[in-house]
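<instruction>
Derive structure tokens from the sequence
<data>
Labelled lines for chain and fold
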Amino acid sequence: MPAKTHQDILLMRWALFSVAGLILLVALYSLGLTPIWARELKEAMASAPFLLPPDAPALSPGTGFLLCMALTLALVYDLLLIRGTLRKTAVLAAFLLLLASFTPVLGLWGLFFNAIPCLLSAGSAGTLAILWPPNAPRPASFRTSFRS
């Protein structure tokens, strides 16, 4: 059996972490937590400085899910390519900060988007990508001792 290449391992980890984050997103939606959070966030944004009207248009749930899926996939891929835990943590924190600011910016334009499920999905998948131990190189004696 051929040895796994680096690309195969990267692809497997990318799929594993991304799917874990997306499963969390689907679980939150199926438990009914997403609409509750959306209603409370919309009520909070009705006050100053956003003054979002109660009948403000919102991104459709399908569009929000596709956006969350694309952002989660992109974040995990980027985190897997970055070396160093500190760098990965800084990229994850900056990404989550920008994603969290997406809702207030759209609120200033009179459009509502609930970014809480996206934050949880991308944050959990990104945390898995950071905390998963990297492949430790095996000693040369270990690799050659099992060849026949």
User: Anything to note?
Assistant: The radius of gyration is 20 Å. The mean pLDDT is 86. Residues 40 and 59 are 16 Å apart (CA to CA).
